[in-house]
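Supplementary Methods, section 5.1.

A reviewer requested that the exact input to the structure prediction be made available. We therefore reproduce it here, unchanged from the version used in the analyses.
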Amino acid sequence: MSDYRRYHVPGATYFFTLVTHEHQPILTTELGRKCLHEAFAKVRRRYPFDLFAIVLLPDHLHCVWTLPPGDARYPLRWKRIKEDFTERYLAGGGTEGTVSLSRRKQGERGIWQRRYWEHTVRDEDDLARCVDYVHWNPVKHGLVAAVCNYEWSSFTRFVAAGDYPIDWGSASAAEDFPGAEWD
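The structure derived from this sequence is encoded token-by-token as follows.
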């Protein structure tokens, strides 16, 4: 079995990528968005965090969180979010992917990939790259030609705050986009 090591820094800012099981395109459906919103809200009430930036794509999401001072328990939060989403989604009529014998033995459902990707944000430049990546992702995946045309993203909140011009990020600018260091 692989030895997954996570970097836990209390009060840090983290970039995450989570993918649905078998890349099922469920996150941007009405049911998927509703269940995810409710799961985030429930977990944030019990285990607070600042949801700094987010984008939902059909089969994955990217987001940036900042945890409270002294708290590095993002794995607990993701576990609870994934569990709550799964319960709500299946109760709401959503269907799951293939549940292997291994998943069945572990009591896992066919909604999320087991693992997720995490990156601890190091500084302001790194944060800017992560947030750019979050907002650029729908263009990268060919879902829209310009970032401002994607509905399920925190981009408009950043535009309203003056952090981006409304015309930031179009498909024609792809060759100029530096991307995140993990691309």
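Residues 74-91 form the longest helix (18 residues). These observations are discussed further in the main text.
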